[in-house]
């Protein structure tokens, strides 16, 4: 099969896969990327288009595009975009791609899918170096679209696998946003919840607001409302009381990085929820594709992103809630140790305890 024929085939497959999802947060548009600016939700469903690598990097930094799988898909498409818009000169194209990789690699330090996708795109480029410039462009676009397809398929598969952990009548607590807006479509933890609902299970959801940027209140509530799934929104500090009152049967969260040891790095507040779930004997599950697994970094070496303190001292940079000059911590993620995790749902199955051994088997 020629490279052009392969690209045409991949594009057709993508169109078929997109029929399976209700929200498409990131798309390829003839040399441009088009994405939902999630910072505008729930007030406005705003789309942005750009072919500028600096604008795409800014969108990732500013959390217009967020969620580890969505960031991975975006970075793959962004590298393809840079190649697509480069002159038909290999040296020029190589410089542009290397510059793009450098720019994108400094956007979010914790989300592992970012680096996973960049490594795949770099490898694809150097393996294609003997092809013509046009064929290299087609090869990179084909690979990026395959990453997008794979993410959607993996999410749908995780939904099928994970929903078996949910019983009819369960109330599930979830944190941050792990739905279509955090992925290429359908979602990870929220994808499991959506699948259970579509399969007829009468479930309810408790969504945390997820301070300081309110991804639960703004985004998860928006997605749950669109899907028609019954839910209640709570402040982050209500988790303890709803568990004490036996209002929660299970916890499902996503992950921005999972280590070979089973440590789950996720949105700030996840660790506290896991501690409370353990105390109240409530199963706590993480849901993530294998592209989120980091098999080389040790727990003590994980870089936890520390964002601008203004996100804490204001509400969405619009309303100041602390005195002028107040200093704040703003860790964007925390790390949940494996002993607090009941299981990890992946597209290859559910990883159970003795995580170091079972994660190793997962990748064998």
Automatic annotation (TrEMBL):
Residues under site feature: Transition state stabilizer: 176
Binding residues for substrate:
66-68, 108, 215, 266-267
- The domain of life is Archaea
UniProtKB keywords: Amino-acid biosynthesis, Initiation factor, Isomerase, Methionine biosynthesis, Protein biosynthesis
Task: Give GO terms: molecular function aspect only.
Answer: S-methyl-5-thioribose-1-phosphate isomerase activity; translation initiation factor activity
Q: Where is the active site?
A: 256
- What Pfam families does UniProt report for this protein, alphabetically? IF-2B
Family matches, as InterPro entries: IF-2B-related, IF-M1Pi, IF_2B-like_C, Initiation_fac_2B_a/b/d, M1Pi_N, NagB/RpiA_transferase-like
Catalysis performed (reactions): 5-(methylsulfanyl)-alpha-D-ribose 1-phosphate = 5-(methylsulfanyl)-D-ribulose 1-phosphate
- Please give the Gene3D superfamilies that the UniProt record associates with this protein: translation initiation factor eif-2b, domain 1 (1.20.120.420), Translation initiation factor eif-2b, domain 2 (3.40.50.10470)
Q: What is its EC number?
A: 5.3.1.23
Q: What class of enzyme is it?
A: isomerase
BP term (GO), one: L-methionine salvage from methylthioadenosine
Q: Which family does it belong to?
A: Belongs to the EIF-2B alpha/beta/delta subunits family. MtnA subfamily.
Role description: Catalyzes the interconversion of methylthioribose-1-phosphate (MTR-1-P) into methylthioribulose-1-phosphate (MTRu-1-P).
Enumerate the NCBIfam families for this protein.
eIF-2B_rel, PRK05720.1, salvage_mtnA
Q: What is this protein called?
A: Putative methylthioribose-1-phosphate isomerase
State the species of origin: Fervidicoccus fontis (strain DSM 19380 / JCM 18336 / VKM B-2539 / Kam940)
């Amino acid at each position: 099969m020629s490279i052009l024929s392969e690209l045409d085939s991949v594009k057709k497959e993508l169109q078929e896969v997109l029929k399976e999802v209700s929200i498409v947060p990131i798309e390829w548009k003839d040399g441009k990327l088009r994405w939902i600016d999630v910072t505008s939700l729930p007030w406005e469903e705003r789309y942005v288009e750009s072919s500028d690598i600096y604008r795409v990097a800014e969108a990732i930094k500013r959390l217009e595009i967020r969620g580890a799988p969505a960031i991975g898909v975006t970075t793959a498409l962004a590298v393809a975009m840079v190649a697509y818009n480069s002159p038909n000169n290999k040296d020029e194209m190589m410089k542009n791609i290397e510059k793009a990789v450098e720019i994108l690699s400094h956007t979010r330090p914790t989300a592992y899918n970012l680096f996973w996708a960049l490594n795949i795109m770099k490898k694809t480029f150097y393996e294609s170096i003997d092809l013509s410039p046009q064929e290299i462009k087609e090869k990179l676009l084909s690979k990026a679209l395959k990453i997008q397809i794979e993410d959607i398929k993996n999410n749908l598969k995780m939904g099928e696998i994970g929903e078996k952990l949910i019983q009819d009548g369960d109330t599930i607590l979830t944190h941050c946003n792990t739905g279509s807006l955090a992925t290429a479509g359908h979602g990870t933890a929220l994808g499991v919840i959506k699948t259970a609902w579509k399969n007829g299970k009468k479930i309810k959801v408790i969504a945390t607001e997820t301070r300081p940027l309110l991804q639960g209140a703004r985004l998860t509530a928006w997605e749950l409302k669109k899907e028609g799934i019954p839910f209640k929104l709570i402040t982050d500090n209500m988790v303890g009381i709803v568990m004490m009152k036996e209002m929660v049967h299970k916890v499902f969260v996503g992950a921005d990085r999972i280590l070979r040891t089973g440590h789950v790095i996720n949105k700030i507040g996840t660790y506290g929820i896991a501690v409370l779930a353990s105390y109240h004997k409530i199963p706590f599950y993480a849901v993530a594709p294998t592209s989120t697994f980091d098999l080389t970094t040790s727990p003590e070496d994980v870089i936890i992103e520390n964002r601008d303190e203004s996100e804490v001292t204001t509400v969405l940079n619009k309303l100041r809630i602390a005195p002028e000059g107040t200093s704040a911590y703003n860790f964007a993620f925390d790390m949940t140790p494996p002993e607090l995790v009941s299981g990890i749902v992946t597209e290859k199955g559910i990883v159970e305890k003795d995580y170091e051994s079972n994660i190793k088997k997962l990748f064998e």
